[in-house]
Amino acid sequence: MKPDALIVPARPSASILLVRDGRAGLEVLMMQRPLHMRFAPGALVFPGGAVDATDMRTSYWRPRIDSFRTSADLPNRIAAARELFEETGILLADGPVPQRRINHRPLGQALDQAGVQLAVSDMVFFAHWITPELLPRRFDTRFYLAPLHRNQRLVRNVAEADDLLWLSPAKVLEDWDRDEAPLMFPTRLNLIKLARAGSVSEALAMARRTPVVCTLPVLKRTAEGTVVRINPETGYGVVEATPRELRVESGTPAPKKA
Asked: For the Nudix hydrolase domain, which residue ranges apply (predicted)?
């Protein structure tokens, strides 16, 4: 274990699980990371990213959110909604969004142009993951669950739009079992948790009544390879990452089958 002084601080970040009721049940919005990315190329992920300085400007966001919160996670909620807008073009609004497109504008300006507020009150704290202490690049990520309303639609053109996928959590997990869906460890476990609900209302109710236990995986390097384990108290029902998930994160090709 590194001395405490050498542990890299985890950068605050946020991710959002946007859900809707599909024809066959609950669906969640996911993206597929480009294959040229160094970290987790080709992986299915939820929209999200690091908290930036703008997300922490409380006075700026006060008139632009539907419910002012003094809680410490407000910047994370703003970051999750901003990343959703930047990566998917979906505006998490509290009311009807005009039909006109909103291109190449920061989230705050887009809200002003559309005449709506950010629906932070729709966002339910869902999960909390911190990157293992032994890694050189670390994030302290809060995951939020939010429902897609009729007034929340694509309002800007983004290059990643072709990669947006509304997927059944249970179906993604089935595909993962068949080695047909590349997932990182936190993504798979959050899909396991989400798949326990059959509809948006069930998912939101489950998230509101289930305490979030912070997940800080412990990474150990052994002669046989890297082992990543989590505390069983996190409630996922899984405590160890598979070699396949670790390969997805590192971008290491899967071994060829004999």
From this structure: 9-190
